[in-house]
Amino acid sequence: MASTVTNTAIDCADAYQLALFWSAVTGHPLHPEDGPGDDETEIMMPGGTALHSKEDPEPKPAKNRLPLCLRPNTSRDAEVERLLALGASLAVGHRKPVGWGWAVLADPNTPD
């Protein structure tokens, strides 16, 4: 017997705003019934797994430990700039001038 992952849940301060961010990042729409003021939202990803944002107003003692690794359809640096323009912030830069390496970004609207 085995289990299937149905969603990845992300705690945040504003579920709708975070869902808008991830919708822009992934190019996939929010669930049609989700809207401003909802305390839970979903973006359906290919294959049926959802990105699920849920509000949690309590302060967190530590950072989220669920990184989502992205593979852009463009260059790494162009995608980093696009995500920064969408509201992400650069947490750690491991990019090398020769084109390899990675960047760690924090999504907007997550509790401190």
TrEMBL record:
Biased composition (Basic and acidic residues): 52-61
This protein's record includes keyword Transport: no
Domain of life assignment: Bacteria
GO MF entry, a single one: dioxygenase activity
InterPro entries tied to this protein: Glyas_Bleomycin-R_OHBP_Dase, Glyoxalase_6
Database matches in Pfam families: Glyoxalase_6 (PF18029)
Chain segments carrying region Disordered: 28-69
Keywords from the UniProt entry: Dioxygenase, Oxidoreductase
This protein's name: Glyoxalase/bleomycin resistance/dioxygenase family protein
